[in-house]
Structures are given as C-alpha cells and as structure tokens.
C-alpha cells in the first residue's frame, strides 16, 4: 500500500543507477535456472543446423558429447535430450530399447561428463511412424491414442532411461494417469530416487512448429488436440497439475511459456510447487528472425523474456537460449 505522495515520494530515486537498481531488484535470472534442450540423431560426426531454429543443431552421439562439455563449462546445470531414431515403427520401440538412441546417448554423456544432470524427454512422437504420442487405436479410418496401453509403454521407456543412467525423466505426452504409471514403473524396477518432471500443463500450441521440424515429429494425420490442452483453458490446467502432484510428480511444467504467463503464475500461486516453464521453439525462432532483421536487440529481448518467466513464478526454464544466456550473465 502506498503511504506517501509526490513530491515527497519519488520512486525514481531507486532507479538512479545500476547499483541501486541491483539492490532493490525483485526478480533475478541465474544460470542455475536453465535447462538446455539437445536433439540427437544417428550417425557420426553429425552437427546439422536446424533450418527453422538458427543456432540449434541435430547432433550425432559423438558430437553431442562435445556440446555437453561446453554446456558444463558454461555452468548450465542440466540438459534435456530428444532422440530421433533412424527407424520408426508404430510402437516407437526405439524409445524403450536398451540400445535406443537416447539410451546410448545417456551412457556416452555420463561417461564423458558424469557431473552433468541428464533429463530425458519421455514420449513417443519422435519414435513412431505416425508421429503421435502413444499407441494408436483405430476404428475404421478413425484413429486416436490409446491412453491406457500407452501407459504400459511409458513404464518400459522410463525404466530403460533410468537403467542407462538418466538423472530425471520428463513425460510430455499428456496421457491421463501417466505420472502414476511412471512412478510405479520406476519404483518397481528399483529406481525410487529418479524424480519426475511432468509436462503437467502442455497446450496444443502453434508455437511448436520449429520443434516438430527439429525432431521430425509432426503427426502424419490429424493433430494432438485430443490429448494436449485447449489454449483457452486455465482451470483445467490447475486440475492437471493437481492430479500430477497427487500421482507423484516432483516438478510440474507449463508449456509453452510466453503466451501462458498467467498459467505459470496460477500454478505457482496455487500449489507452491517446483515449477518449470518451457521457452519453446516458436518463441525462440521468432526472436531469432526479428533479431536477424535488425528489428530487436536479441540479448535484451531474451533476458527480458526469461526474467518475465521467472517473475511469473517459474523456478526452472527450459530454453534453447541457455548457452547464450549463460555467456551474457557472466559478462
């Protein structure tokens, strides 16, 4: 509550120079807040720039190890891995194979950079021939993801990730009951100490376009609106988060971030729970495109955007800008 008035009260006094601004700053962005996403493909010596995401690459396993070493040197505490297998099938079987691309990547990263905290995205869209996030059930020409059969496959996937050395799993498919099933699967296999970061409120968003290019995961028919959330809804997001916490999620996530600041704030205010925000591919690419045209100051816009996510309530930010931000914050 304001207790004074102009001219005795002048709020500009605390904005006079950078020293005083630092002293009264309410929100801070740190390298400790960041998770860096990485895309991994088969082959050797591969570092292929993603056309729709300038500055981001698909790496073969040998090259991603080099990238993770640089990430560690920058002080970024964690990475999240997305695998793109050479062969896809209806079940996405590479996702739960002990010799799958993610499983081999985890082992290689942990051998080379054991201190790096490795998180795995847990889903099927990158691995299935149809591009949907689970087992398909069809009635004639009408197909949809079979929720409960997908849960059994999710158990297999997370156990294979944990066995390979993952530090955390992050299920992103928005299946009902997925956190309960994953927690049960991990615990039954003896991995009771592996935490779950749930994509608890993941919206069916147009902002994912460049990611689907990067991960080669666009659905071959239809869309994902029967399992990802309607962008119009916020109360439903709170129900999703509540269920995931009840089922055993250790961290909850809102995705995307930029157009869903109100959801981030509502989740944090309601549950006081560790909350992540995913600064998604479309958000990244829009900034990159505007900066390339000289329309914006990329550094200032990125730092302001991520700071606003922290201000909204995010404790953790998954962002393709993580390496740049780490460098800028150390200047």
Provide an overview of this structure.
With 331 residues, this protein is α/β, with parallel strands linked by helices. Helices cover 38% and strands 18% of the residues. The protein has 11 helices and 12 strands. The strands form 2 sheets. Strands 1, 2, 3, 4, 5, 8, 9, 10, 11 and 12 form a 10-stranded mixed β-sheet that branches. The protein is globular, with a radius of gyration of 21 Å. The model has no long low-confidence stretch (mean pLDDT 93).
Weakly predicted, low-confidence segments: none
Please state the overall shape, judged from the principal axes of the Cα atoms. Answer: globular
The fraction of residues in strands falls at 15-25%
The major β-sheet equals: 10 strands, mixed
Number of helices: 11
Mean pLDDT: 93
Radius of gyration: 21 Å
The chain-level structural class is alpha/beta
| Order of secondary-structure elements | HEEEHEHEEEHEHEHHEHEHHEH
What is the first-to-last residue Cα distance?
37 Å
- Helix coverage percent: 25-40%
Number of strands: 12
């Amino acid at each position: 509550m304001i207790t004074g008035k102009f001219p005795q009260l002048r709020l500009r006094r605390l904005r006079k120079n950078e020293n005083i601004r630092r002293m009264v700053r309410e929100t801070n962005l740190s390298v400790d807040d960041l998770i860096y996403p990485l895309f991994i493909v088969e082959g050797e010596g591969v570092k292929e720039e993603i056309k729709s995401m300038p500055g981001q690459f698909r790496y073969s396993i040998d090259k991603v190890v080099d990238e993770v070493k640089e990430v560690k040197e920058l002080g970024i505490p964690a990475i999240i891995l997305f695998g793109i297998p050479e062969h896809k099938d209806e079940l996405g079987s590479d996702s739960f194979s002990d010799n799958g691309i993610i499983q081999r990547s985890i082992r290689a990263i942990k051998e080379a950079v054991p201190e790096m905290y490795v998180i795995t995205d847990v889903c099927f869209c990158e691995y299935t021939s149809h591009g949907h996030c689970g087992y398909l059930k069809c009635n004639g020409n009408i197909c949809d993801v079979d929720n409960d059969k997908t849960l059994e496959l999710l158990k297999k996937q997370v156990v294979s990730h944990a066995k390979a050395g993952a530090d955390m799993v992050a299920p992103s498919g928005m299946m009902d009951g997925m956190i309960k099933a994953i927690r049960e699967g991990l615990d039954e296999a003896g991995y009771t100490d592996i935490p779950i970061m749930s994509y608890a409120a993941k919206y069916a968003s147009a902002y994912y376009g460049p990611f689907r290019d990067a991960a080669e995961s666009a659905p071959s028919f239809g869309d994902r609106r029967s399992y990802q959330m309607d962008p119009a809804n916020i109360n439903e997001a709170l129900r999703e988060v509540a269920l995931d916490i009840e089922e055993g999620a250790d961290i909850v996530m809102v995705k995307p971030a930029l157009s869903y600041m109100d959801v981030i704030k509502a989740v944090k205010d309601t549950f006081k729970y560790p909350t992540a925000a995913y600064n998604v591919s479309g958000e990244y690419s829009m900034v990159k495109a505007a900066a390339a045209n000289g329309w914006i100051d990329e550094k200032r816009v990125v730092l302001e955007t991520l700071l606003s996510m922290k201000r909204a309530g995010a404790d953790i930010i998954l962002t393709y800008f993580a390496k740049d931000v780490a460098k800028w914050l150390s200047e």
